[in-house]
From TrEMBL:
GO terms for cellular component: plasma membrane. Residues 4-161 form the Major facilitator superfamily (MFS) profile domain. Its main location: membrane. This is MFS transporter.
């Protein structure tokens, strides 16, 4: 795989990982209705995605001294795939909370490991590559609410797949 294709893959992955962190906020009303829960419980679902994102950042930094960066990046993608399936198939609130927490873990692990990987892959263009990569992440935040609105036409679970 060329570096350009790898970079495009990493930008796609960071887009999906940030979308996984921010997708829950526009779904709060849906969760309240679907699971017959209060606002505080629905808010906890969003909070768990962010707590998951923060929880393994320090241990991931330490792990990067022992394990190659690319393996951790691949691992974060695998966690995202599994956790989005868990969240999308949730039939109970604890099930959904677990999926949200794991989706957050995937994003936190990725963000810590991807930046040094990008610096390693593109040493002469670090600033540009980091800027593009960061923009790919923020595009997910911008489109989350419209994306959820479109998926609600079919089923809210589609937004988590």
């Amino acid at each position: 795989m060329t570096r350009t294709r790898l970079f495009a893959s990493l930008c796609s992955l960071v887009f999906l990982l940030n979308l996984a962190r921010v997708i829950f906020a526009p779904l709060l009303d849906v969760f309240i209705t679907e699971f017959a829960i209060g606002e505080a419980t629905a808010g906890l679902i969003v909070t768990l995605a962010w707590v998951g994102s923060a929880s393994l950042r320090l241990p991931t930094g330490w792990l990067l001294t022992k394990v190659p960066r690319h393996r951790i990046v691949v691992g974060s993608g695998m966690i995202l795939a599994a956790s989005s399936a868990i969240a999308a198939t949730a039939t109970t609130v604890p099930h959904l909370m677990g999926g949200a927490f794991l989706m957050g873990i995937a994003s936190g692990v990725y963000f810590v490991s991807a930046n040094p990987l990008l610096s390693e892959l593109f040493p002469s263009r670090v600033g540009r590559v980091m800027g593009i990569h960061g923009a790919a992440s923020q595009i997910a935040a911008v489109i989350a609410a419209p994306f959820v609105a479109l998926t609600l036409i079919v089923d809210w679970r589609l937004s988590l797949w």
